[in-house]
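Methods — Computational structure assignment.
A single polypeptide chain was analysed. Its primary sequence is given first, followed by the predicted tertiary structure written as structure tokens.
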Amino acid sequence: MANRLRWMIKTLLMSLAALALLAALVLVAGNFWVLASTAAYIDRPVEQCRPGDVAVVFGTSNWTRSGLRNPHFNARMRTSARLLERRTVEHLLLSGDNRTQSYNEPRVMWRDLNRRGVPSARMTLDFAGFSTYDTLARARDVFKLDEAVLVTQSWHLPRAIYIARSLGMEVTGCVAEQRRAAGEWRLRLREVAARVATLGDLYLWKREPHFLGPVEPIELIGDAPLRVPLVLQLPVELTPPAPQAPVEAQ
């Protein structure tokens, strides 16, 4: 009886070790595949970013959990404004989470960019960008983008580019970079797992976006001014365009 119990424990431990080894191989192989297949499409610094009509800007909170300004948010807004200023792109699609009335990433992005001198006519807000996948699926299916420049951090761009190109979009990535932020290692570690999960989303369980809604093609405005004066006198708070109806995850 004791020998049988030892054999069962040994078998269980060997099985767990084999599963752990398999998981590690999948993690390494999945990350290598995503990173290797997207490296050629990532540009830095902003002066070297390849041109396009529309830049897709990924939303994130403008504050950290510790109550400080989020450097990743600032980097994305700064890079997006510079892309317009340099005429690398003509329009910005600001996509982020708006699950509740009190949390609205696209609205905050709009306000920040407007204060940086970006005219409203150069921005379109996507209130249903609940995830990287949702943002890109909606960019293709709702806003009818076949090509785009993606703006986010270097550790996020490989996954975003991989998703977009898997959806049939021709995209490049422009790195919105800044100095290493406190706690950034957590985001980078989470991204390692997210890249592998993305492969499952695309090839195994065929993920669908939470919400699509009506088609709203982006119309470029040609030679209209790209920027307004950076020094603005604002007697009242700017009010960005609101969605026609609150968007909730389905």
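Note: The first strand starts at residue 42 and ends at 43.
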